[in-house]
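Support reply, case 0932

Customer input (verbatim):
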Amino acid sequence: VIAAIGVWNAVKIPKVKTIEIALPNLPAAFDGFRIVQLTDLHASRLLQRPWMTAVVDRANALEPDLMVITGDMVDGSPQARADDVKPLQSLTAKYGVLAIPGNHEYYSGYQSWLAAFNELGLRMLINQHVIITHENQQIVVAGITDHPAARFGLPDPDIAAALGQAPANQTIILLAHRPMGASAHAQAGVSLQLSGHTHGGQILGAHVLTKMANDGFVNGLYDVDAMKMYVSMGTGLWNGFPIRLGRPSEITQIVLRTKS
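Our regenerated output:
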């Protein structure tokens, strides 16, 4: 019975979790700016097109200002999973959809997936940044690669490159698949880091081990020096261990606030 409950929790459509995050020096125009974060979707034989469509519909219903995907969108080749990820092309937000790779993109044919993601209309930030202008004020949104990249002869995560030539004294939001390395990102001037990767540990109690393996981070909002970091429980999960108990999946709606 417990196993059945765990599998059901793993495959059901995630609920929306809304949090407010106050950032110092956030431009006044961005007070109330809404970001929807999806992460660890893991399109696979377990989480196929109908599940992905339901997630996309629920995310779009929030009508966010910005949609972000923080890695691990797929498990499998573009040929095997093309139909399952197709609903991602329907994601919409006022200022677009930004994404970064996670470790599973590297295991699943990274270069081919980059081309596929571009065809779906996802703007991939590969150690890059974009500037979001809202009511004549700006913030920077940057993204970095993930650590397995070096094994495949691909660029390592590089926060300096990601922020290169970014305007000075701007609020910086960083998309980083893993919470590890947060201190270095804080020192680089990042205001808010959005991460996934941990799946919240998937099982209450066992999540302590996941926390130990990720620099003491597992899920929720953290203060890392002057930087805020939010680590999502994950929207989906790897099909090799399809169980959640006491660690629910989520579609995260983040509301930015000026710090009073």
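We compared this against your earlier run and they match. Two observations from our side: The chain has a mean pLDDT of 96. The longest helix spans residues 49-60. Please reopen the case if you see a mismatch on your end.
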